[in-house]
Design goal:
Length: 305
């Protein structure tokens, strides 16, 4: 259990965190099957329902005293939380919308590609915006991802914009999330609350009739969205960063397998080579991350000795 333990958590806590994290990532992986059931509904209508029902299920949060205090802190003089919440709101709207579009238009493979390259876009973000320097392995991983996307674009004649949209919105959303001081669940409540107004407007003017099963699925889109986020938050607090680095590939790999073996999406030589290059880049990136993490841990132990 050494892999699951760190300096801040007991082994039992780490096991609980691992269970929560696995639950979240497997849920996200299987979620493709849920969204696919809504193929007959317009993507924007699905998005509007997802936003609205997520917000409705989060409303009880605002009745907690601690949450009300955090709400007040967002608007205190000098606080920049509200800026990052607004930016995050825009990003999560595009991210959810692009993901739903991929699910209902037989582009699940492209969605999985987006989340496979997301870790490498984090590296690129560090270079472009935080002026970080890449080591040789990181440069090679980013280069392989760039070659893979360029190859797909050149051979198929179309840019995989859903994959890129998912990767970059997820990356920037993660950056803004780190700058917000309030709880993650409350942040999602603010974001869905802001988006619920245009969602309601869309449903008022463009909503279409549905049968009982479709209505049940649309309402369920709220908890389907929120539950894994709660589990992920509970897991991330207990599981070491290195372990989370491995777990993050579970959901896109499941999406990949579902697209390939259940929905039989096209997977020709070009896509095979694209995914292969991305996976090699991720292998290099992950191995480098683990090596640097172990080096930092050893140095910290030597300093404290």
């Amino acid at each position: 259990m050494r892999l699951l333990s760190n300096g801040n958590s007991k082994p039992s806590e780490a096991r609980i965190g691992l269970a929560y994290s696995l639950l979240a990532y497997f849920w996200w992986g299987f979620a493709a099957l849920f969204w696919k059931r809504l193929t007959g509904v317009a993507p924007l209508e699905i998005l509007a329902h997802r936003i609205l029902w997520s917000f409705i299920f989060l409303i009880p949060l605002f009745f907690k005293q601690r949450v009300r205090e955090q709400c007040a802190s967002v608007f205190e003089k000098g606080s920049r939380d509200w800026i990052y919440i607004v930016l995050g709101t825009v990003l999560i709207g595009f991210n959810w919308g692009a993901f739903i579009l991929a699910m209902v238009t037989e582009r699940i493979l492209e969605a999985s590609l987006g989340y496979f390259i997301a870790p490498l876009t984090f590296v690129g973000l560090g270079v472009w915006f935080l002026h970080e320097r890449l080591n040789r392995n990181q440069r090679l991983a980013v280069l392989l991802a760039t070659v893979a996307i360029s190859l797909l674009w050149f051979r198929l004649g179309t840019l995989p914009w859903i994959a890129l949209c998912l990767a970059f919105t997820f990356t920037f959303y993660g950056l803004f999330k780190r700058k917000i001081s309030i709880d993650a669940s409350l942040t999602v409540a603010f974001e869905t609350g802001l988006l619920s107004l245009p969602a309601l407007a869309y449903l008022y003017f463009y909503s279409t009739p549905h049968n009982l099963m479709t209505w049940a699925l649309l309402i369920a889109s709220g908890p389907v969205t929120l539950l894994p986020q709660v589990w992920f938050t509970l897991g991330a607090r207990r599981v070491p960063f290195t372990v989370m680095g491995f777990l993050q590939y579970i959901a896109p790999m499941m999406n990949f397998l579902i697209a390939l073996f259940i929905y039989h999406e096209p997977f020709d030589e070009v896509r095979m080579l694209t995914f292969g290059l991305i996976w090699v880049g991720l292998l290099i990136y992950t191995a480098d991350m683990i090596a640097r993490r172990r080096t930092a841990t050893r140095e910290a132990k030597l300093k404290s000795a």
